[in-house]
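Onboarding guide, step 5: your first structure request.
Type a short instruction followed by the sequence, for example:

Predict the 3D structure of this protein.
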Amino acid sequence: MFLWQPSQAHRIHEVIAIIIILYCTVCTRPGIWLIMDAMYLKTTVGSYLAEGLAEVASKRPSDPIEYLGLWLLKQKQNIVNREVAYYSKVLIATLLLYRR
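The system replies with structure tokens like these:
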């Protein structure tokens, strides 16, 4: 049984934050570094992990680790594609502006 249902995806962010904090408390490094590690993980991958875990919970694949890994790689590719599309539009607009 899962700790959450796919309909409770908004709570996954809380679960991720708790997991990160629990992970950091068992480390042997000084306390300030633990907080910084937790903040870094929460701000960089927290939302993606939460969304990916919600997807795994809703799809229930036979290999959830592989599914999550492939899902994260797809999200990274989507980010790159959006950036390429954005900067392509900026470049075209700049070229059109200076063409006049």
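Each response can be followed by summary notes, for example: The chain has a mean pLDDT of 78.
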